[in-house]
Specification:
The chain is an all-alpha fold. Helix content is 73%, strand content 0%. It is globular and about 45 Å long.
Length: 110
């Protein structure tokens, strides 16, 4: 919804990207419950080690961690292009889907 409404308010595009990156984090925290302070990068690395995320996708996720940190703790106002936002939203949806499918399969086995 934020992405669609960014046509009217351009700043919504960055917010949409930040929320998408937070969805990746939330899905990884569902997959790997544990201490709250555990860094997101460690969760991505664990997902790669356990073959939840292929190496190339894990690398995208690590780049997403960096973006999430930049968007969450900005030194200046962030801006993204339509192409950047589209790609990021598309890839975060895929990442969340992969992780939650693995979490669901793990829960069914337990």
């Amino acid at each position: 919804s934020l992405f669609v409404h960014s046509w009217f308010d351009y700043e919504f595009m960055v917010v949409a990207c930040l929320l998408a990156l937070q969805a990746v984090e939330a899905s990884l925290r569902i997959m790997y419950p544990g201490p709250e302070g555990r860094p997101l990068k460690k969760l991505v690395n664990q997902a790669e080690r356990e073959k939840v995320l292929p190496s190339n996708i894990a690398e995208l996720a690590r780049n997403g961690v960096e973006l999430r940190n930049l968007f969450s703790h900005p030194a200046t106002q962030a801006a993204v292009t339509l192409g950047m936002a589209t790609s990021l939203l598309e890839n975060t949806h895929r990442l969340v889907s992969l992780v939650l499918a693995a979490a669901s399969a793990r829960a069914q086995r337990a």
